[in-house]
Design goal:
By secondary structure, the protein is α+β, with helices and mostly antiparallel strands. The strands form 2 sheets. A 5-stranded antiparallel β-sheet has the order 1-2-3-7-4, with helices on both faces. The radius of gyration is 17 Å and the shape is globular. The N terminus is likely disordered.
Length: 210
C-alpha cells in the first residue's frame, strides 16, 4: 500500500529512524476526566514511522491539511514546525480479553468509555489551540471526528510498529500482548498534526497514576 502523493513531507524533518520514533516513552497516567481511581492509561508520544505514515494516509487521507488553523499564532507555526504524531494508549483490563462472555463484553465497554473520554479531552485540548487531532474508535477502527473516512485502522499493527509490542494470531484475529499485562490489554490511538512541544507539554501535564 502506497501513500498518496498529496501527503505532506514536512513531518519527516526529524532525524528519528523507524525504530526510534518515541518522543515521550510510555507512562501510566491518571485519566483526569474520569471519576474512577483505576481508569489509568499507559500513554506515549511518537513520530510516525514510514509504515504508519502510509497507514495514516489511507485512514485519514488529507484531513489534517484541511483543518482551520487560523487561530494559531504564526510564530508558533513557523518556529516549532508541524509534525504528524501518534499518541498510543493502552489500558490494563481486569479480564483477559481473549476470553468470551458477558463479563468480558462489559469490561470492553468500560475500557471503551474510558478511552473515548480521554481521547475526546486530548483532541479538544489540541484543537482549541488550532491544531488538528483525531482519535480512533476502538470498536469500528474508524476516526471519531474526521468525516468521510472509511478505511479501518489496525490498533494491533500500530502498537507493534510504535512500541514493538508483540502479537499473535488466534483464528482470524490478531491478539496484542503487553509486556507486563499479556492479553489483558485494550489499545487505542490518538493522532495529531501539531508542533512536538505542544503535544509533549500536554502529555507531560497529565498526572502519573499512583
Amino acid at each position: 500500500m502506497m501513500m498518496s502523493e498529496q501527503q505532506p513531507s514536512q513531518q519527516q524533518h526529524h532525524n528519528q529512524s523507524d525504530t526510534s520514533s518515541t518522543i515521550v516513552p510510555p507512562r501510566l497516567i491518571r485519566n483526569t476526566q474520569s471519576s474512577n481511581n483505576d481508569d489509568d492509561l499507559e500513554c506515549s508520544l511518537h513520530y510516525l514511522p514510514k509504515p504508519l505514515l502510509r497507514e495514516f494516509g489511507h485512514v485519514f487521507n488529507d484531513e489534517h491539511t484541511r483543518f482551520d488553523s487560523n487561530n494559531v499564532d504564526a510564530t508558533v507555526m513557523n518556529n516549532n514546525g508541524m509534525q504528524l504524531l501518534a499518541i498510543p494508549t493502552n489500558q490494563r483490563a481486569r479480564e483477559d480479553l481473549v476470553a468470551v462472555g458477558d463479563h468480558i463484553e462489559a469490561e470492553k465497554d468500560r475500557l471503551l468509555n474510558v478511552f473515548l473520554t480521554f481521547g475526546k479531552y486530548i483532541c479538544e485540548q489540541l484543537r482549541c489551540k488550532g491544531f488538528w487531532a483525531d482519535y480512533i474508535d476502538p470498536c469500528s477502527g474508524l476516526p471519531m471526528i474526521s468525516l468521510n473516512c472509511n478505511k479501518v485502522y489496525s490498533e494491533v499493527d500500530g502498537m507493534e510498529c510504535l512500541l514493538n509490542y508483540k502479537a499473535y494470531n488466534a483464528g482470524f484475529c490478531k491478539i496484542l500482548t503487553h509486556p507486563k499485562w499479556g492479553s489483558a490489554v485494550y489499545p487505542a490511538t490518538i493522532f495529531a498534526y501539531a508542533p512536538v512541544e505542544v503535544a509533549r507539554s500536554l502529555l507531560e501535564s497529565l498526572p502519573s497514576a499512583s
